[in-house]
Design brief:
Blueprint lengths: L1 E2 L12 E2 L10 E4 L5 E4 L5 E10 L4 H12 L9 E4 L5 E10 L2 H13 L3 E4 L1
Antiparallel strand pairs: 1-2, 3-4, 5-7, 5-8, 6-7
Helix pairs in contact: 1-2
C-alpha cells in the first residue's frame, strides 16, 4: 500500500491505494458495533488476545473470566495472564479466546466495556 502524494497539514494520510501490480485479496465483511458494515482482516476461527485492565480489587479476575466464558464458552480461565501495575493499584488481564466470528468479538467487547470494574479493553 502506498500513501497519496500530498499530505494535508498534520501529516494525515488522505488515501491508501495499492501499488500497481499488487494483488488485492478482498477481506471478509461483517457487522460491527451499531450494526454498521465493516471490513475485517481476521480469518475465523482464530485465537484473539484481549487485554482488560481494571482496579486491583477482590473478584475482578474471577468476574472477567466468567464474563468471557459467557461469550466464548471454550475459554479456559487457567490460561488468563495477570499483571499488576508497578504500584499494585491496577490489574491487567490477558484473555486469549478462540474467536469464531466478528459478531462474537463485538458482543464480548461490549460486555467487557460495560462491566463496572473495567477501565480499558484492548
Amino acid at each position: 500500500m502506498r500513501r497519496s502524494q500530498g499530505r494535508p497539514k498534520g501529516g494525515a494520510v488522505t488515501s491508501m491505494e495499492p501499488r500497481s501490480g499488487e494483488p488485492l485479496s478482498p477481506p471478509s465483511v461483517g457487522r460491527g458495533m451499531g450494526g454498521r458494515s465493516l471490513t475485517t482482516l481476521l480469518e475465523f476461527p482464530c485465537d484473539f488476545p484481549l487485554k482488560i485492565m481494571g482496579a486491583n480489587a477482590d473478584g475482578f479476575a474471577q468476574s472477567i473470566a466468567e464474563l468471557v466464558c459467557v461469550h466464548a464458552p471454550d475459554f479456559d480461565a487457567a490460561t488468563m495472564e495477570r499483571r499488576l501495575s508497578k504500584a499494585g493499584n491496577y490489574l491487567a488481564l490477558t484473555c486469549t479466546v478462540r474467536a469464531t466470528s466478528q459478531a462474537q468479538l463485538d458482543a464480548l467487547y461490549r460486555g467487557l466495556t460495560a462491566h463496572p470494574m473495567v477501565k480499558v479493553v484492548l
